[in-house]
Design brief:
This protein has 259 residues and is mainly alpha-helical. It contains ten helices and two strands, in the order ααααααααααββ. α6 runs parallel beside α8 and α8 crosses α10. It is elongated and about 60 Å long.
Length: 259
Amino acid sequence: MKKNVFLLILLVSLYANGLSAFGGFQSDSLSTAQLHKFNAKGLIAPAALVGLGAVGSAIDDFKEFDFGLRPEDMHHHKGFVVEDALQYVPLASMYALRLSGVKSPHSCFDATVLAAGSYCITGAITFVLKKAVDERRPNGKDSDSFPSGHAAKAFAGAELLRLEYKDVSPAIGYAGYAVAAASSLLRVKHSEHWLPDILAGAGIGILGTKIAWWVCPPLQKMLFGKWMEKKGLGSRDFAFMGVPFCNGNVKGVSLALVF
């Protein structure tokens, strides 16, 4: 457990310190309604990734393509692996950048609502598909291979980071996606997933974030707008964040209060 938390903090610190060099410009040119307006074009990339993953899982040559990363001995890596922490770096960096003084269009409270919605939607879609598809992992450990949960969470966080800081610098979004891609490829290297699994997982993560981006703000305002305005939660700069971890048979959540 301590190793998981330490590595996550180290990765986030290094990552956020690099990104904070891009400065802190906050755009006021878009209203909240415009910022979260539905855009059908946003569905193209995630739909293509999920479709490619679904089709690719039925083609053996495509399914088994591993970029030369997977060892011949496809054994299960027991205990902690680096991608267990790396998958959460893009999400955690969204908060770390704020602490570094890089501004974004949302308060920490609103950003946390978006993150919670994104991860709930992403997790639900991933869980349902894992049980429905019943794909065996390369290492034979179980039948939860398709889609990759690690890839889904990593790319959900990367898309959140991109949307939150796209007015600061596009490079922040690219960096988030690079970390998510690295985390996903490590799942292939460690024989936990086939290539189509991580493609579909990436698409689901992006899709989950986009749905949350479009749906959560108006829903939040409709259900809790008056209460939040009374409590001052829309502008108060704080957030309560939970980061899941897994260390062998031990699972839990690391909690943090950002204010």
